[in-house]
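My current task is to audit a protein record that another person submitted. What it holds is a sequence and that sequence's fold in token form. Thanks in advance; the entry in question is below.
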Amino acid sequence: MAAVPDAEPAAGARPFRVMLRMEIKPGLEEEFERVWQEVGTSVTTHPASLGQWLARSRDEEGVYYILSDWADEERFREFEHSARHVEHRRALHPYRRGGTMTTMRVVAHLGPDPDAPATHEEWEATA
């Protein structure tokens, strides 16, 4: 999902990140994943959205993590209190049995090095 151009943070600004931990009712995982993708544009079309990801835990049965990045906290909070967000939550609520939300500011990012070795073997040889 591409970021909306207006959503890019100002030069030097760090994104505001939201991480949801969702516990899904047993047997509803596949349907939850499908519905999450269907309603996801209500998040990603917001002008401050920088994208979102859905990840399924390998260690905990029925647990998912949703990460979303925002241009800043103020505009995330604007979205959080919007009617579209209420509808988004309403669509996903029947699948939930619990969960938590954690918010954070990204303080640093180390991206891939374009000059890094192409294979694991080459990388090991540089140590």
User: Anything to note?
Assistant: Residues 54 and 66 are 5 Å apart (CA to CA). The longest strand covers residues 96-105.
